[in-house]
Amino acid sequence: MTRSWAEPWKIKMVEPLSMTTRDQREDAIRDAGYNTFLLRSDDVYIDLLTDSGTSAMSDRQWSALMLGDEAYAGARSFYKLVEAVSDVYGYEELIPTHQGRGAEHILSQLLIGPGDVVPGNMYFTTTRYHQEHAGGTFVDVIIDEAHDPSSMHPFKGNIDLDKLAAVVDEHGADRIAYVSFETNVNMAGGQPASLANIKDVYAYCSERDIPVMLDATRAVENAYFIQQREAGHENSSIADILLEITKHSDGATVSSKKDNLVNIGGFLAVRDPELARRARAMLVAFEGLHTYGGMAGRDMEALAEGIREMVATDDHVRSRVGQVGYLGEALVKYGVPVVTPIGGHGVFLDAAAILPHLPQEAFPAQALAAAIYVDSGVRGMERGIVSAGRDPETGDHHVPKLELVRLTIPRRVYTQSHMDVVAESVIEVYDHAEDIQGLEFTYEPPELRFFQARFQPIS
Length: 459
Fold this sequence. Notes:
Elements (H helix, E strand, L loop, with lengths): L21 H10 L14 E2 L11 H7 L10 H14 L3 E5 L2 H12 L5 E4 L4 H9 L3 E4 L20 H11 L7 E4 L12 H13 L4 E4 L3 H11 L8 H10 L3 E5 L10 E5 L2 H14 L10 H13 L5 H20 L11 E5 H4 L9 H13 L1 E2 L1 E3 L1 H4 L15 E5 L7 H16 L7 E5 L10 E4 L2
Parallel strand pairs: 1-10, 3-4, 5-6, 6-7
Antiparallel strand pairs: 2-8, 7-8, 9-12, 11-12, 13-14
Helix pairs in contact: 1-14, 2-11, 3-11, 4-5, 4-10, 8-9, 12-16, 14-16
């Protein structure tokens, strides 16, 4: 008999949620230009827009806030954070930033020059923006299975070594700025990479003096999937697997608003002291002094505690990924098309399959996210052609193979009952999917358009 599981925490404080009518939600989404990013949070019931900075901090983290050293230089909170990163991630050189994209900016400016190429396992929006802004060109070298929502490959985040070798052969190793290796690939549906693949990529790159830089934002979730799916690691702890992942890299950017269980913060961590010195010089100009970067002392205290908490036992990540799986399995059981296997941080609806009557240029994922909000007040987000943006040279849409709506689960925030409500709403919308109209732009920002674009139904 399969036994039920429960969260490894109890609720000590509650925050009231907004309950709205359908008429109110129709007005709200219209005022927001059918973009869930532009909704006011007061108009949202269950907020699955992102897991970035939306998790619940623990009692120990809230206590840590009161211990923050707000000294401008040399704060003890910084050194506590350095020690936590070294112990848990294994990197000795730490550059604190206000969040992950601050680290992406610094890394891109330091390592990428005009004409350089950055191979990676599927793009992420802000990462690719910083790489292109620095003069580089991103090239996707993820395995083909990652672009197939129905594939059950256990490690769809893997880099295809043949694709990587082809890029290196075409451009030369000296023009490869670094390999951008994301753990638990967001745009693929929260899909992990195997430890074997991480090791193989690092060995290949080390032979050619090509740096490997992780996006380790969700590396803890990736470690969990390695434990569950990769032979030989079933008896290893999440903490040990995480160190093994980072061991096979030259550095990492981390948005601490995910795995690290805080509402703000991030860091760049590297092994090379000279690269760290150059990074700190940029940090002072763009973020803050090298011993606080973009964070207050209290933020660094809570972050140091969160880093240790996330791997203190395996129960935390098992519960976190388990709740995502609970929602995903409910939708799969009904027949709603989703990305499989279910990912680590969210359930990704296959909008192209749910709305086959809409061409991709009618933004089906954007329309589906709006429809789910109108039905129940559940806020998800588009991850398809709108997020992909345009080619900066031709002006044409980037056309990704995946057209998805992401329902991202914050950590330690919602109950299984909330997941039941979400599942029922998605099923209701799915049952009436033919009624959903496509959208067109009324305002399109030139860069990172998905954040602030506005739409209207196509007449």
